[in-house]
Amino acid sequence: MKNNLLFCLLAAAVCAVFTLGFTQTATAIELRYNNFFPPTHIQSKLAEQWCAEVEKQTNGEVTIQYFPAGALAKPTKIYDAVETGIIDIGFEVLSYVKGRFPVMAAVDLPWGYTSGVQATNIANGIVSKFNPKELHDTQLMFVHAHGPGLIHTKKKPINSMADLKGLKLRGTGASALIQQALGATPVAAPMSKTYQMLQKGVVDGSSHPLETNKGWKVGEVVDYVVENYSTAYTTTFGIFMNKNKWNKISPKSQKIITKLNKEFAAKHGKAWDESDKAGLEFFKKQGGKVISQSDATSAKWAKAVQPLFANYVKRTKNLDGQKIIDFIKEEMK
Length: 333
What we know:
46% of the residues lie in helices and 16% in strands. The protein is α/β, with parallel strands linked by helices. The protein has a domain at 31-145 and 235-277: 3-Layer(aba) Sandwich (D-Maltodextrin-Binding Protein, domain 2). Helix 2 runs antiparallel to helix 9 (251-285). The radius of gyration is 23 Å and the shape is globular. The model is unreliable at 1-25 (pLDDT under 50).
């Protein structure tokens, strides 16, 4: 009897140790999140809030060290760093990874966006509808997109497409294609380098949303913004997690994170619009001038960028790019 009791006690002790070890392993997942936005930017603050909510709602099973300002990887290298496991989570501009996201690239085209909420809904609609294979190399958390991307210039006001000829404008992805279609010369560079390029005269202007004027202080080095809303584009951003790290998270916590992702996609989209208002105010306080467009000029610019849609379909025949374009067209209505 004593032997049986001793055996039971030992078995219980072994089970307790095993259970404790399992629990400790489950709560010891620490991830590193790299974001290229400066810590003061609203998009950086939201990313940090997401990290805090993940830790809080998973009861500490998942903890995240947050690194803003590209501390772990440069803006153009974030996605690769996540995929290879150099970093665990990354906030990336999809157009910075040239040719990697052909389906999602349709979102950035000059659809004439009016808000970040609208652009974010379109981006998430594409993910939901088409589940692009290009997103399967990592675990996508969520996507979002900024409000209308407009042309800003230093010194020279832009009243017509003729005024753009000979100007060098900072732009990447769709914004560069739009600049080209309108007669300017695009110069590829991440947003983090834009202020310095404008300040030193490397470029004559930049395509970016109004929020950038305050968020990146670019409003200090540009003088004009054109309200070219008929050719307004967006830039899609993705938050990605390394797949191996995602698979180590318990199903329960994965479910919690997935729910948070939906909430924060909407928050990021709304934040773009709020920061656009602040960016315009900041721009005007620096003495910046807003140039409006007549209906005729607006229509002329819109016509000039129409070939970009046909070119997209041509480039993505193997992905049935026309279906993607048709889907966005319907959603934009």
